[in-house]
Amino acid sequence: MKDEIIIAGFGGQGVLSMGKILAYAALENDLEVTWMPSYGPEQRGGTANVTVILSDEPISSPVLDTFDTAVILNQQSLDKFESKVKPGGVLIYDPYGIHHAPTRTDITVVPVEAMEATIEMGQAKSYNMILLGALLKMRPDVPVEAVVRGLKKALPERHHHLIPVNEAAIRRGMELVH
Amino acid sequence: MKDEIKLMKGNEAIAHAAIRYGADGYFGYPITPQSEVLETLEALMPWDSTGMVVLQAESEVSSINMVYGGAATGKAVMTSSSSPGVSLMQEGISYLAASELPALIVNVMRGGPGLGTIHPSQSDYFQATKGGGHGDYHLIVLAPSTVQEMADFVALGFDLAFKYRTPSMILADGIVGQMMEKVVLPPQRPRRTAEQIKEQCPWAVTGREGGRKRNVVTSLELDSAVMEKNNERFQRTYREIENNEVRFEARFTEDADYLIVAFGSIARICLKAIEDARKEGIKIGLIRPITLWPFPYDAIRDAARNVKGILCVEINAGQMIEDVRLAVSDSVPVRHFGRMGGIVPNPQEVLDALKKDFINK
Amino acid sequence: MKREDIIKPENKVYSRPRLLDDNIMHYCPGCSHGVVHKIVAEVIEELGLEEDAIGIAPVGCAVFAYNYIDCDWVEAAHGRAPALATAVSRLHPEKVVFTYQGDGDLAAIGTAETIHACTRGENIVIIMINNGIYGMTGGQMSPCTLEGAKTATTPYGRRIDLNGFPLRVGNVVSILDGTCYVTRQAVHTTAAVRKAKNAIRKAFLNARAKKGTSFVEIVGTCSSGWKMSPEKSNKWMEENMFAHYPLGDIKDTDKTE
Q1: Strand pairing of B258-261 and B309-313?
Q2: Residue B216 is nearest to which of C66, C85, C116, comparing CB atoms?
Q3: CA distance A82 to A91
């Protein structure tokens, strides 16, 4: 098993932390994992992305050109990464704010109304967890239980009271994928 | 007992490993992409656990001179920075080398020259391996390619520094500094006691206890005849290090038609390119120098015997390639592939470059 | 009376401090460094700190201080002594760490290290000999060179419009919260030497008591650099240097708290 994932969006949308939680979940599930962020001022409002590789074998390059799975949170990232999904791969995106939807037909394109669901749930900060839920539905690389254990490690203790909210958001995201 | 596997950034691993090594002091100044070293140390508060001193200095100039002062007292002290900050440290590094002091310096490289970019680069290879500051000296230079090696090389760097009484450097880059992966941290070692330091470092400036003769740490010697002798002693140490401490990793070299030489995180990108190439029937081997100084000339010469070409992949304009050419002379064509300014090539680009240079000529 | 009748222990009126070595000093005749070295050696001995004192030598005329005062030393890079002293003191809090620097070393290239060591309140002693010139490199202008003073790099005299104003380092560090004691002294008369010694003793005691940074500026002469006889140098110093660098305590938290 190997899943080469790119998660991309605006800084502040929780791109890096979504990747981090996934990485911790992989650790909990005894997988090999690398988490390689775009770093620096980009995190503060520009575009941000993170490459997460999950594998049951040792991972060579943490930097990739093409991906099995893309989770896209804004138009710029869609423009940049749509062509980088391997044929047969999966592209998950939130149509909110997307003016030019993906056009590729050789990959599975999965729109997830995550922003809408976030507003319904009234939990702005769990936006990225809804998308993570969608990712886990499409790519069951790790069980949700491992993700919840990963949340405990990825989040500072003062935020642990938010874990049930995040878990609910992940499950909501899974439901949004049909 | 099963080793506890953690997930962390390379920079964080450096900080944890320093505490667990029993380091006595860290002196540093924030600079992207390595600030997590200082941030992690401050968060872990090792002064309460091991007694390690952690201090944010006013500049990299001050950091390295704090390291110089601390090293002169026989303590295991270190600093970390990124390229522009390491340029500022060169004066102090030269003093450390000339005063024959052990210390550990970490450079998490970013793209230059000048203020440059904050993104990964390997453009300080010359600076790290050929001297960097003034005078005839070398650092022992270790190039980690994984977060595990970031952790492991802290102990290795300190141990080699103390063994040879010379500063050593971990030459990392923004990729291995910023990426997270699994790491098993070394067990906690106690800091050395004052007695152990006195025994291991009789030259250390610790106060003239017991009325011993005074210890003076200095790099100054106005008598040229004596200074030449000092230099000869340094060079003898460097030859000894060259004889004993060369480290490298060889992969797929047995049946290779082509050879890639790459260090640090880029070696991993090359490994992926090599794996992909094998699927196409192209046999490429990899030599990854782990010590950039001393450089694995012999290993590269041996691995090059049956190959049609060598590609040096570096994120710079071509620096290590000079050492690779020294290793093989004109016996085999050597080409460079790299990106600059903080751009990291992907595995496909590496493979394309190799094909262009050697296969689809 | 024969010579042997005079040379007897009971007639002895002065001894060289035990911690001042026999090595022949390289300082020029009339230079203030020799006297300050003697004071430092006496203070270390009298306070019983010979096993605990660690000196940081500068780049400048006092670069060889480690050849004269019998304690452990590290010779710093130019201007960096307070950074070294910071680390040595933090790693060895039981020791008493002092720097011995000149105005060229401390007040020019070493301002950042000085200000930050003082502002962190490192428990160290900083001794700065201010003779308003770079002695070792051949008498160039330092930040503390007086207006109008001729040096190798101000051959027609220091001009404020070109070179700025002479820097009163003592006053600068006195406003930093980490300093506990800042004083400006001289060593040109017996009375001045006594006062300077008291100041240095107090500074060492402060460091031992972890009160913060003590900064002792000693206004001194450089006969060679100033191109004056030792006697004339002292007079010129009294008339000109003291006017810009008045002697006395600038800050003493023992008295204000």
Answers
A1: parallel
A2: C66
A3: 7
Tell me how far apart the alpha carbons of residues A173 and B81 are, in angstroms, rounded to a whole number. 41
How close A37 comes to chain B (CA, Å)?
7
Helix (H, G, I), strand (E, B) or coil at C100: strand
Taking only the tens place, the pLDDT of each residue in C26-76 is 999 999 999 999 999 999 999 999 999 999 999 999 999 999 999 999 999
Which CATH number, 3.30.450.20, 3.40.50.920, 3.30.160.40, 3.40.462.20, labels domain B248-359? Answer: 3.40.50.920
pTM of the shown model: 0.95
Mutate one of A16, A35, A42, A63 to test the B interface: name it (highest B CB count within 10 A). Answer: A63
Instruction: Answer whether B72 sits within 8 Å of C50, measured CB to CB.
Output: no
pLDDT of A70 strictly over 60? yes
**In angstroms, how far is CA C233 from the centroid of its own chain?**
18
Per domain, the residue ranges of chain A are 2-176
- Which residue in B253, B300, B263, B37 sits closest to B145, CA to CA? B263
Whether residue C13 is contained in a domain is answered as no
Structural element, H or E, at residue B243: helix B224-244
pLDDT tens digits, one per residue of B274-294? 999 999 999 999 999 999 999
Does domain B5-194 bear CATH number 3.40.50.970? yes
Q: Which two tokens stand for residue C199?
A: 């100041």
Nearest to B7 among A24, A63, A64 (CB): A24
pLDDT in tens, B135-185: 999 999 999 999 999 999 999 999 999 999 999 999 999 999 999 999 999
Burial of B333 (0-12, 13-18, 19+ CB in 10 A): middle
What's the gap in Å between the CA of A60 and the closest CA on chain B? Answer: 5
Q: Which residue is closest to C21 within chain B, CA to CA?
A: B214
Cβ count near C59 (within 10 Å): 22
Q: A interface mutation test: which of B2, B3, B180 has the most A CBs within 10 A?
A: B180
- Assess if residue C239 is contained within a domain: yes
Q: Which residues contact B117 (CB under 8 A, 6 or more apart)?
A: B110, B111, B341, B342
Q: Which residues of chain B have pLDDT under 70?
A: 1-2
Domain count, chain C: 1
The answer to whether the B5-194 and B248-359 domains have the same CATH topology is yes
Residue C195's domain is classified under what CATH number? 3.40.50.970
Q: Do A35 and B180 touch (CB under 8 A)?
A: yes
Looking at domain A2-176, its CATH architecture is: 3-Layer(aba) Sandwich (3.40)
Burial, B195: exposed, middle or buried (Cβ in 10 Å; 0-12, 13-18, 19+)?
A: exposed
| Segment 48-67 of chain C within 8 Å of chain B by CB | 50-54, 56-57, 63, 66
